[in-house]
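PT: before anyone asks, these are the final sequences, not the draft ones from last week. 284 residues across everything. Please model them as a single complex and drop the result in this thread when it's through.
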Amino acid sequence: MSKSDITNNSLDANTVVSKWLDTYGDDMFSWAYYKTSSKETAEDLVQDTMVSAFKSFDKFREGSNPKTWLYTILNNKIIDYYRASNTQKSVNQTTLQGNKLEDDNYDANGMWSNVQESLWSNTEEHLLDNPSFLKVLGSCIEHLPEKWRGVVIGKYIHHKKGAQICKELDITPSNLWQMAHRAKLQLRTCLNQNWKDK
Amino acid sequence: MNFLMKMAMISCKQAALLGSKGSFNALNFIERIKLKMHVKICTTCQDYAEDSKLIDEAIEKILQQREKQQLSLTDEQKARILEVLK
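LR: through. Structure below.
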């Protein structure tokens, strides 16, 4: 279908976008899930991308690669998703959660107050090869506040390059180190509570 | 010895935060020594460091798997996505 046939015809734009969803939807969904660790969020992001593609359909240049165009939109949506958690309300909420987490784990002098049993101490097998351990951890990651999740995933994707992660999430290096610390505490607590077979 | 003791005098919370900073290769020389000294004498922090390493490796494994994993949208999901275009 050439674009000249469909310009200014919203019904056909609709057809083209539906076709794109059929062709590229699964890949986009997989990519968004990889970047966010949440299938629900991934579906929303694919939907937002399709809506944007539909709305700015007249900006799509004939002959260019729809996949490239869609991925540009999707990647911006993913950045927006993490940055949306920069609102004061969300920042305050995450800070409160982080403070509480630290209060639960350390006493007033910063010593461990709630000594958790080490995850690997009672197990002979290698947890990394245990699918159900990885599944529990996956679900723990999914339940992290957005920003902490962004830090955890960004750390892997950007090979621990802090500057890159800070730029993407729009945070300072001190924020990054603190969020990574808090995410780790939260994940360990979550594993201790939900990993029953240890 | 006095100097060494002083270097190790950080709290576990500070040590964990330095550990986090270190995982982005962002520690300076003094911080690196402080962390090392503290962990050497603190068994709880040794446990935490082990757990932390295990969690990092497990996250790496999960994301490696996901990088290759191909998910499919169900027809229901596709219908839901297209619903808003109507």
